[in-house]
Here is the input.
Amino acid sequence: MNSTSPYPSYRTPTLARNTVTTTQPLAAQAGLRVLQAGGNAVDAALAAAITLTVVEPIMNGIGGDLYAMVWDQGELHGLNATGAAPAAWRPERFAGRSQMPRTGWDAVTVPGQVSGWRALSDRFGRLPFARLFDSAIDYADNGFAVSPFVASVWPLLADLVHGQPGFDTAFMREGRAPVAGEWWRFPDQARTLADIAATGGESFYRGALAERIAAYAQATGGALTEADLAAQQPQWVTPVAQRYRGLTLHEIPPNGQGIAALMALGMLEHFDMREAGLDTAAAAHLQIEAMKLAFADLHAHVADPAHMRCTTAQLLDPDYLARRARLIDPHRAQATAPGAPRAGGTVYLAAADADGMMVSLIQSNYFAFGSGVVVPGTGIALHNRGWNFNLEPGHPNQVAPGKRPLHTIIPGFVTDAAGDPLMAFGVMGGFMQAQGHVQMLSRLADFGQAPQAMNDAPRFMVSPLDHAVKLEAHMPAVVTQGLHDRGHAVQTLPTGHLDFGAAQIVQRAQGYYVAASDGRRDGQAVGY
Here is the structure.
């Protein structure tokens, strides 16, 4: 395998038979310690994920949501551990608003992440559940040095939730954010993680922690109740897939946005991307136009599956995607609208072990620090997934009690032409994620790039709302000009800007794995 990267990079890939790659070195090392103690890839992924709630609190916390895919014994398994709206969230609660709140209790759906940790451990784990919390509890209790990336964005994201219930006391001590290298301890969080570890997560949904969450909601204007928390159940799901140039991309089905990546690839199958060329305006334009069409359908049709008016199969129907592809002009940017199918601020990590188990896992508090609500004395920072609900009457994604919102976080998984596992990967960053998956898979399938090159390559990010196109600064100038000439509203942002997310990749090779971490953050790939 060619492990070189033609792009500016400070990283080299890790080659190992057992590996973990995450956005933060301490979390990667926590996963590696579990592997070396006899755990498998799921144990390692969970140890890393739990540790990330402590060492990277700007992107995730104990009160978030989770999706995962696990390759084990010749089969790919999917887990949807996202939560539903509180029972009190009837549309009239939000009357007079033009959109759902981004912060505060009215952005907080039931956190599903803890239930996902337990479900993964019960089904696939080799070590005791409580063992997976050791590193996270130690860092929360005894402290750690805040990493450079986390410190750089902490004050910016904290400004977005300043003043929300419990936030400033928890994360803006002495009225400021910590700086790089500052020692950070959060004993309240250590006690909460120890409680979750000891009770197998039961305390969070049906015990002392659930009581504290619900009581704080009642005291500060929230609707979340103990009954809402007790109703949480993670769901094992069958991943949906799209074949592209002999490879197959697998995604978690709705309520996630992964279907948008599959739809875009189904459209791009009708174009010769190799002829368009690597890192060219022609190739980027085709991908952008396909994503615009996919986003139009995503926001019109995709929601909690129980409320969708069309099925996933209908949205991925080859004839429908061929019709959508015909709307793409290779030479000019187009306005897009949803089609009519025929009736009928996130952390990502990957892990793999010598026995062939591969894990693709993503968890998040969503935008910035999430809702900004932090339950006093617990370190539980709650996400703001309710922000993704729609308030349009009759829309499939309209807010309703017990309903799961459209979700942005998506883990990715690729199998080869023989159906064997090839790559676990993810690209963080809101609606960057689906288009990041498309860009990654095209680089792999169309141009044969190695994992580190795929990570280091310049990215575009097209807004699903106004179709403005953001480009990383190391995008070749000829591409930027070519997109402008095709009618795109182009803006160049610094390489590594939060809008472009960050990626982690584990790719299977001959008897080992190639793990690549994204230099846009503090990420690290480790292995042995």
Q: What stands out?
A: DSSP finds 18 helices and 21 strands in the chain.
